[in-house]
TrEMBL record:
Signal peptide: none annotated. PANTHER family: UTP--GLUCOSE-1-PHOSPHATE URIDYLYLTRANSFERASE (PTHR43197). Keywords: Nucleotidyltransferase, Transferase. This is UTP--glucose-1-phosphate uridylyltransferase. The lineage of its organism: Bacteria, Bacillati, Actinomycetota, Actinomycetes, Micrococcales. Residues 7-273 form the Nucleotidyl transferase domain. It comes from Microbacterium istanbulense.
Length: 295
């Protein structure tokens, strides 16, 4: 199935309106999470899973993303001259991570449209899609498990996570049944952001997918859905309904996920990641305890 040449697609063309005015001139994907922009965590996750060819779908005013993954010779020379090898290594890491390409979406017509824009680059191979709002802890190899599930089954693979039923309207929701493959469930239906009473389960689709190239043909004919956008969920629903195909399977994730798409959750993500770091945790943990006691 060509897993040795699997590529990753990272849609990053959104406007980031929930973080205005911070995102008026800065892409939301470049907002710092501790000391790295959010998108670098996502690229590093793909690289850890063995992917070295990454396509980032960008929109207008996203030049900061392309700049971040370029080398900066003048900065690197200055750090080298100062003997600041620690910072030099952190600066060069982002430009040495992978073979990173950029493609303009043009008009933001939804996640399905962004994925469809990747067709020429991806070709006839399976590929991963990673959304930048969801950061997966590097200690939890979700994407590796999803790629392995795709290799075994040939199905489209989506990441699912149990959420409080009152929050399911914020996500795509999956109807599932026991799967034939160990460690996965069979997805029988998908609903994009359903009302709580209409949700088929509390299993939310989070931002990781491993997809067969056949999804492009479906997206080509998918009409705009909820919000007037081309929804990837609608294409996955068609794959799930195809009785003759491998269908869609879900990997239920029970690890550490950090949501950076909401302002409060973004702050929580920074705190959670910072307290686990050897260089920041020893100072932050006692301060947080003292701060909490004073609330």
């Amino acid at each position: 199935m060509g897993m040795k040449t699997i590529k990753a697609v990272i849609p990053a063309a959104g406007l980031g309106t929930r973080f205005l005015p911070a995102t008026k001139a800065m892409p939301k994907e470049m907002l710092p999470v501790v000391d790295k922009p959010a998108i670098q965590y996502v690229v590093e996750e793909a690289v850890t899973a063995g992917i070295d060819d990454i396509l980032v779908i960008i929109g207008r005013n996203k030049n900061a993303i392309t700049d971040h993954f370029d080398s900066v010779p003048e900065l690197e020379v200055k750090l080298q001259q100062k003997g600041d090898h620690g910072r030099l290594q952190r600066v060069t890491k982002s430009s040495d991570l992978a073979d990173i390409h950029f493609l303009r979406q043009g008009e933001p017509k939804g996640l399905g449209h962004a994925v469809l824009r990747a067709r020429t680059h991806v070709g006839d191979s399976s590929f991963a899609v990673l959304l930048g709002d969801d950061l997966i802890d590097e200690r939890d190899p979700l994407l590796t498990e999803m790629i392995a599930a795709h290799e075994r089954t040939g199905a489209a693979v989506i990441a699912l996570m149990e959420v409080d039923p009152s929050a399911i309207h914020l996500y795509g929701a999956a109807a599932v049944e026991a799967g034939d493959d160990e460690g996965t469930v069979k997805v029988t239906g998908l609903v994009e952001k359903p009302a709580t009473e209409d949700a088929p389960s509390n299993l939310a689709v989070i931002g990781r997918y491993v997809l067969p190239p056949s999804v492009f043909e479906i997206l080509e004919r998918t009409e705009p859905g909820k919000g007037g956008e081309i929804q990837l969920t609608d294409a996955l629903q068609e794959l799930a309904a195809d009785a003759e195909g491998p269908g869609v399977v879900g990997v239920i994730f029970r690890g550490r996920r950090y949501d950076t798409g909401d302002r409060a959750d973004y702050i929580k993500a920074i705190v959670q990641l910072a307290v686990d770091r050897d260089d920041l945790g020893p100072e932050l943990r006692p301060w947080l305890k003292d701060f909490a006691e004073r609330l």
